[in-house]
Amino acid sequence: MSAATRQYMPPNGRLQTTNLPYQSDVPRAVAALLETTKQLQETLRLWSVSQASEIHVSGVYVRLGTEFNSTVVAFQTFGIDMSEIYQIPQDLRTVLEGCLSEDPSIQTLNKYLPRVRQIIATLLRGLQSKQTAYWNAVGDASMRR
């Protein structure tokens, strides 16, 4: 393998090889993921007052899953293990299924939103815990170019 490629293991378990990533891939992926977590919370709020449907909430959740996978892959291309946050999408799905199985109301939102926020906080802590490894990897990658 040349210095310009890296191997990584995405959550699907298939070893893949990619060109060495650009430094901006991780910040861009993280920013998109964080924006989608905000959209999820806002869409849940809208759902609770019947201004968004279950389909809208589900669509934002699917987008969050896509952004999550992109973020994990972006970190893994730098050799950074993200396995401690792999359960985040499933945890969110479980909470959302419970929430959406009930009638839309502020009471339902107040019942489930704290858990959604707790899961998002766990995600944020997981991402934050990888910052040093990322910046070290970026420094190492730029020295090899």
Automatic annotation (TrEMBL):
Gene Ontology terms: biological process: establishment of cell polarity
Annotated organism of origin: Multifurca ochricompacta
InterPro entries in the record: Aip3p_Bud6_N, SRCIN1
Source superkingdom: Eukaryota
Domain Aip3p/Bud6 N-terminal, chain residue ranges per copy: 28-135
UniProt name for this protein: Aip3p/Bud6 N-terminal domain-containing protein
Stretch list, region Disordered: 1-20
A GO CC term attached to the entry: cell tip
